[in-house]
């Protein structure tokens, strides 16, 4: 299912100056789709760079200058032929510097550069950085309209949030390019996955009544049923307990509610179902 999507999205990547945006909540398959698109791009002999912002150390976010230097350093680490950091001019503004350096990179590059930026939500913790970085990406994308050099850059941005902080949405990459919004699996898709796992698709309806078509939760359940040789009845009975397969998933949300008391109160107001009573009382 995802591989077919990756192949179709590659047609968009082949457009000069393409920008693709993948938006979905956590654990919906953004990174999986992103990497499959990258694999297709590699088949087309594109130079590819992948950067997950959640893996960048906190000390790199102290200011925009340090962040942009680190950003470029990470890129050239995956592109040995790129201009080194010795060309970085510390006497000019950081965004201009980064843009000029990337322009030099693209001029030297033989072919297309596919730059995939994952978990960019991390930047919204640092206003000084995101208020400069995202408009810079928008500028790079717009440069492709009038520059053969910038046409060689293809961007893919993956994010979860729709809260862009103080960012002017019209000066960002979040309202241009091709948007991809990942949805939950349909019943037919979940049945197909169950059959691929060698499971009876009749077991799927009780599972979907608990987790819907959430990609991560569905795949975790199928993996558990196969590898633990467990029954769907046992899975459902233990699912929301501390020993169930979803304990880590639920604990992560619990921590979110505990950190945001207002969100927790709204959640409790919504949870009128007996199924969620114990979880709501923990907040």
- The Cα radius of gyration reads 22 Å
User: Biggest β-sheet: count, sense, barrel?
Assistant: 5 strands, parallel
Low-confidence stretches: none
- Proportion of residues in helical segments: 40-55%
The count of strands amounts to 5
Structural class: alpha/beta
Number of helices: 12
Strand order of the largest sheet: 2-3-4-1-5
Describe the structure.
With 283 residues, this protein is of the alpha/beta class. The chain is built from 12 helices and 5 strands. Strands 2-3-4-1-5 form a 5-stranded parallel sheet, with helices on one face. Strand 3 (113-118), helix 5 (127-143) and strand 4 form a beta-alpha-beta unit. Helix 1 (2-13) crosses helix 2 (30-43) and helix 10 packs across helix 11 (261-270). The chain starts with a helix and ends with a helix. The mean pLDDT is 83.
Short description:
It is globular, with a radius of gyration of 22 Å. With 283 residues, it is of the alpha/beta class.
Helix and strand topology:
Blueprint: H1 2-13, E1 19-23, H2 30-43, E2 47-52, H3 64-77, H4 94-108, E3 113-118, H5 127-143, E4 153-159, E5 178-181, H6 187-196, H7 204-211, H8 215-227, H9 232-238, H10 247-259, H11 261-270, H12 277-281
Helix pairs in contact: 1-2, 3-4, 10-11
List keywords for this structure.
5 strands; single chain; five-stranded parallel sheet; 12 helices; 283 residues; globular; 49% helix; alpha/beta
């Amino acid at each position: 299912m995802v591989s077919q999507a990756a192949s179709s999205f590659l047609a968009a990547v082949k457009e000069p100056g393409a920008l693709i945006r993948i938006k979905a909540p956590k654990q919906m398959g953004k990174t999986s789709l992103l990497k499959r698109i990258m694999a297709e791009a590699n088949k087309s002999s594109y130079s590819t760079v992948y950067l997950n912002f959640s893996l960048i150390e906190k000390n790199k976010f102290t200011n925009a200058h340090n962040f942009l230097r680190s950003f470029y350093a990470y890129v050239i680490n995956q592109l040995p032929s790129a201009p080194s950091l010795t060309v970085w001019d510390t006497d000019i503004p950081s965004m201009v510097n980064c843009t000029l350096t990337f322009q030099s990179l693209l001029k030297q590059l033989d072919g297309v550069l596919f730059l995939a930026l994952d978990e960019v939500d991390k930047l919204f913790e640092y206003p000084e950085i995101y208020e400069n970085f995202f408009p810079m990406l928008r500028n790079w994308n717009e440069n492709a309209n009038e520059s053969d050099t910038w046409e060689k850059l293809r961007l893919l941005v993956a994010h979860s949030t729709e809260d862009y902080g103080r960012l002017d949405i019209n000066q960002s990459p979040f309202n241009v390019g091709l948007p991809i919004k990942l949805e939950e699996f349909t019943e037919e898709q979940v049945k197909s996955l169950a059959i691929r796992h060698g499971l009876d698709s009749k077991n799927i309806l009780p599972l979907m009544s608990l987790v819907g078509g959430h990609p991560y939760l569905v795949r975790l359940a199928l993996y558990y049923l196969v590898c633990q040789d467990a029954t769907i009845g046992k899975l459902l009975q233990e699912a929301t307990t501390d020993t169930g397969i979803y304990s880590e998933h639920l604990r992560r949300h619990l921590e979110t509610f505990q950190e945001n008391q207002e969100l927790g109160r709204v959640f409790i107001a919504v949870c009128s179902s007996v199924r969620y009573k114990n979880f709501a009382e923990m907040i």
